[in-house]
Amino acid sequence: MANRTLVIGVGDYGPGSELDSHPTITASALQYGAVLRQDSSLGPDGCRVLSGEEVATTNAVMDALEQAAAGTGPKDRLMVVYVGHGMHWKDLPTKEVHFAVGTSEASKPWKWLSSSYFYHVMRKAGAGLKVLIADCCYSDLLPALGGGVEDSAARLEVLGEPQSGTCVFAALKGGGSGHFAPADGCAALPPAFSACTPFSGHLLHLLQTGTTANVEHFTIGQLREAVKHSMKTCRTDHPMPKMVLNDANENIPIFPNRMEHGRRIEDVAPQGPAAWIDALKFGRATRLPELLRDEGMAGDVVALLRARRDPECSELARLVEAEASRTYRNSETFVRFLSRAAHRRGRPV
Fold first, then answer.
1. Using an 8 Å Cβ cutoff, are 158 and 285 in contact?
2. Is residue 266 part of a domain?
3. Do 256 and 123 share a domain, yes or no?
4. DSSP 8-class letter at 26
5. Given a cut of 80, is residue 251 above it in pLDDT?
6. 308: phi then psi, degrees, rounded to nearest 5
7. β-pair type (86-88, 97-99)
8. Number of domains into which the chain is organized
9. Which of 49, 108, 266, 346 is the most buried (most CB within 10 A)?
């Protein structure tokens, strides 16, 4: 196994760059290294944190990325973490997001690193699972890494799928929150993580402390929901992150759960559609078979998801419907599911 992680944190810039240097960026990169190196699946040389001259130029960063990608195979994971300034110039013909390097200048896009170069190298890598974590402004504009079909139904084939595909976990969801990713640390976090940027601080705190859910590993979907919950319930207001999957199964284990076993809480069956929705958002595919044992409840869950009228709930509704169509072979059972799913559709919640 050749799991590889490359951490790129660009917190300092040359004179005349007109880019603000942020110690939280450098602290985030170092903390990613400290936390991720605890993952035994990486091996002693599996996590590399770039610094100094290694992040000074686009060539230096891309050379390091190519080295990380080299030698990975279908059973391996390639993860790239970028923390720094991000920029998007509307007048450029390709309109992609650009990442800053140490020699970047605010008004000169040709001195920035195009995200399309990142995507090119990661797409060519042999790793089965490819993950990009982007903590920067305009990260909400990053597209799916896979470069293929982005339709939810196409990428959410859940049960029994291989542990492969691509994932982009971005600090920004976009929409009303805009394109600005704050760099000042979150004072609500413990000192080691409050010195990081807010998104990276919350993410790293979760990876270091774990979750009370009775699981041995965070799955991709669980990690997203845990970070969103941590930032949403924080006493400091934060923009919400987003995740874009392409072919990747949300149920793929990605990081170990470091919570002590004695502090984990045994799963109990959710009571009612709203509780089931909360459970599915965190557990996704792990809870689907349990839900589908009751076709009426499954239908009520879909109806409530549709009534909430937001993209995330609509995507989750399609996931339940897709798995229901595979599970309910008896036509009467499937009709009961469909009847309940349609019963409350459109009712405000």
1. yes
2. no
3. yes
4. H
5. no
6. -75, -20
7. antiparallel
8. 2
9. 49
Contacts of 14 (CB under 8 A, 6+ apart): 102, 103
Please tell me the distance from the alpha carbon of residue 172 to that of residue 106, in angstroms, as a whole number. Answer: 21
Q: pTM of the full predicted structure? A: 0.80
Rounded CA separation 341/305 (Å): 9
**Which token pair is 264?**
């984990």
Say whether pLDDT at 157 is over 50. no
Domain with 65, as residue range(s), is: 4-261
- Could you read off the pLDDT of 94-108 as tens digits, one per residue? 889 999 999 999 999
23-37, 47-61, 70-84, 281-295: lowest mean pLDDT where?
281-295
Residue 232, domain CATH = 3.40.50.1460
- The length of the chain in residues reads 349
Count of Cβ atoms closer than 10 Å to residue 177 Cβ:
16
Rounded Cα distance, 349 and 342, in Å? 15
What pLDDT does residue 8 have? Answer: 98
Q: Of 261, 294, 321, which residue sits at a domain end? A: 261
- pLDDT for the residue numbered 262: 74
Say how far apart CA 321 and CA 302 lie, in whole Å: 7
Which residues are CB-neighbours of 66 under 8 A, at least 6 positions away? 121
